[in-house]
Specification:
By secondary structure, the chain is of the alpha+beta class. It has 8 helices and 29 strands. The protein folds into 3 domains: about 140 residues, Cytochrome Bc1 Complex, Chain D, domain 2, CATH 1.10.760; about 140 residues, Galactose-binding domain-like (Jelly Rolls, Sandwich); about 180 residues. It is about 15% helix and about 35% strand. The strands form 7 sheets. The chain has a 6-stranded antiparallel β-sheet, with no helix packed on it. A hairpin with a 2-residue loop joins strand 1 and strand 2. The structure holds heme C. Heme C binds next to helix 3, helix 4, strand 1, strand 2 and helix 5.
Length: about 475
């Protein structure tokens, strides 16, 4: 009997085990000398840590490339800068070995997802010809680091479907959650719910307080919300309304872990929630939500106020808090102002008084939204006023006073939509060109708006607040009066 093949197969078996199963052992052999036995980083900064490193999280290709071809140049890991060189290991290690090592690295506080041998093989094949080390910034261009998790630990989000007439924070003791999910990103967020109506979300988690003292919590929401620390209410945003109504509350806290609970109710229309905290041990303000709180006070410094001049309207085509991305704002002489969304032909906001502060936009291009300068802003519409219809925006005409008429088509009907200042508010004149007899549902409000009246000459609003516009062949004209003054 020939012993050689037996020996070979035993060897093959041994290699296979090392290849496929022993990530920790391989790690100790090939990485720990520099990165530390637990991935805590080399002594005296000789190599950055791998444990809890964003470089080892998210897209696995980033790490695979580092191991295959090495890394040099400036990088930042866990808040510290490095400018060192890691030698390539691609020639020494097989695809399976690299996959096993990186899967082990993933278990060091890096999310734990497996890295597959196929993935390593694919990256190796793609860069077969490459000899150069990777540079940090070169890798980040193709594989940006995942955003670091937010400050809320053990965060759970519960969803409650609500009845349509529920307009206040419900009594949760009487409700059962329809869904509940862990939020590993540690941030309050509306992901998956931003298009829904009539619901509540409740977030429960923990916050780590490092130093004793007074903390302030700021909350903003569309519609209602309330924030509790250790079961005590700290701040609430009452009433139905849009973002931009931020409130701040204070709490004195001791070092340690505190419970945080945020309750949120969305009625209809726009959605939004933002929360932040500030206090001892926190640099500046730290966001507790994926949407940042925008301070309404700030624009007052360096105010760049846009005003209508004489009998001409002023326009502002830019991001405005609480509106869509193709919103067009008009400030009319006499102090009526509006935001029209060209994406869906909806009249989103209406307010009286001063128009807009373009200052934030001037100073921080593209990063901030401007705010209406008056206190009472009516959030009228989210989405299209023509439910279920297909529409396309065609353009805008300006008259001698720079008043726009918005032109668009709704299922083949040509609509000319002209807002203009009128007695105690605004008139909106719709001229609809129809090829024959028909009707069109017009829904100018996404929800009842307190303190606001909307009337149409010759037509009565239906129970749900919509209007049924009767159409004859030719031009049909309807005048709606929006009373706000
Ligand atoms: C000879 C020392 C050395 C060895 C061995 C080594 N590395 Fe590195 N590694 C470094 C250095 C130094 C850097 C930082 C390079 C820079 O500053 O651009 C680094 C960076 C990294 C990074 C990106 C930054 C971070 O900390 O997350 C990863 C991922 C990484 N190494 C993984 C590994 C793995 C996996 C192994 C084993 C297969 C390994 N390294 C072996 C020295 C080493």
């Amino acid at each position: 009997m020939n012993l050689i093949p037996l020996l070979f197969s035993a060897l093959a078996l041994f290699t296979l085990t090392v290849n496929g199963q022993s990530g920790p052992v391989l790690y100790q052999t090939y990485c720990s000398a520099c990165h530390g036995a637990q991935g805590q980083g080399g002594a005296e900064g000789a190599a950055p840590p791998l444990a809890k490193s964003l470089w080892a999280q998210g897209d696995p290709d980033r790490m695979i490339k580092v191991v295959l071809h090495g890394l040099m140049g400036e990088i930042e890991v866990l808040g510290k800068e490095y400018n060192l060189v890691m030698p390539p290991q691609g020639a020494v290690l097989s695809d399976g070995q690299i996959a096993a090592i990186l899967t082990h690295v993933r278990s060091l506080g890096n999310g734990g997802e497996k890295v597959s041998t196929d993935r390593v093989a694919a990256v190796r094949a793609k860069y077969e010809e490459r000899e150069a080390y990777w540079k940090g910034d070169e890798l980040l261009k193709d594989h940006p680091l995942p955003s670091p998790p937010g400050p809320l630990k053990n965060l759970v989000r519960k969803f409650y479907a609500l009845r349509k007439d529920q307009r206040s924070i419900p009594d949760y003791a009487k409700l059962e959650a329809n869904a509940s999910a862990r939020q590993p990103n540690g941030l309050i967020n509306l992901e998956g719910y931003s298009e829904k109506d009539h619901f509540s979300l409740v977030w429960e988690g923990e916050l780590n307080v490092r130093r004793e003292g007074q903390f302030s919590f700021t909350l903003d929401s569309d519609d209602l919300s309330a924030l509790y620390i250790d079961d005590k209410k700290v701040v609430e945003v009452p009433g139905l309304g849009g973002m931009g109504r931020a409130k701040t509350g204070k709490a004195t806290l001791h070092p340690g872990v505190v419970k945080i609970r945020v309750e949120y109710l969305e009625f209809t229309g726009f959605t939004g929630i933002a929360a932040s905290w500030a206090g001892p041990g926190i640099r500046g303000t730290q966001s507790l939500s994926s949407t940042k709180v925008v301070s309404k006070q700030k624009p007052k410094i360096n105010l760049i106020e846009l005003k209508p001049e004489g009998n001409r309207a002023v326009h502002y085509r830019n991001f405005i808090a609480g509106t869509g991305n193709r919103s067009f704002s008009v400030g009319y002489p006499g102090g009526v102002n509006l935001v029209f969304n060209q994406e869906n032909c909806g009249l989103e906001l209406l307010w009286s008084g001063r128009f807009i502060d373009a200052g934030p936009r001037w100073k921080n291009r593209g990063t901030v939204r401007s705010f209406p300068l008056s206190g009472q802003v009516y959030h009228l519409q989210k989405g299209s006023p023509y439910p279920g219809r297909t529409f396309s925006f065609q353009g805008m005409e300006l008259d001698d006073h720079e008043y726009p008429t918005f032109c668009y088509s709704v299922d083949g009907l040509i609509v000319r939509d002209r807002p203009q200042p009128a007695d105690k508010g605004m008139e909106r004149i719709l001229t609809i060109e129809s090829a024959g007899v028909g009707e069109l549902v017009f829904a100018p409000l996404s929800r009842p708006v307190p303190g606001f009246s909307l009337e149409c000459r010759g037509l009565v609003a239906r129970q749900d607040g919509t209007f049924l516009l009767p159409l004859l062949k030719g031009d049909n004209s309807f005048t709606f009066h929006y009373g706000i003054l």
